[in-house]
Design a protein that fits this description.
This protein has 2 domains: 1-68, no CATH class; 70-117, no CATH class. It starts with a strand and ends with a strand. The protein is built from 5 helices and 4 strands. It is 46% helix and 10% strand. The chain is mainly alpha-helical.
Length: 117
Amino acid sequence: MQANTYTVCGRPGGHIFKLAAKPQEQVTFSVPGDVIRECEAKGSPIPALPDPELIALHAACARVAHMSGAAEYLDILERDAEEMAVLASDGSSAYLLRGLLSLVPACVGEHCISHLS
C-alpha cells in the first residue's frame, strides 16, 4: 500500500458514508505541490500529514465502540437529532439532549477531554 494511504471502514449506510457524495474505500493524505512551493517561498513550515499512530488509535477506538454497541447508540442519537426539530416539552427527549451534550468535549484551559457516559 502507498505511504499515507488508509482503508476507510464503516457500516454501509453509516455516518461516514452519508457525509461523502461518493465514499472511497481508501484515502491518501498528501500536501499539494503548490502548497509546498508556497510554504517554501514564504519560509513557512510545510503542513504535517496526520500521524499514522493516531489514525491507528482512532481505528482501534472505533472498533471497540462498534463492538460494544456504542457506535449504534451514537447512530441513534444522530438520527433522532436529525428528525427532531425541538425538544419535547414533557421531557421525553431529555435522553437526546443528554446524549448530545455528552459528546461535547469538556475543556479546562488548554486541556480538553471527550467523555461518553
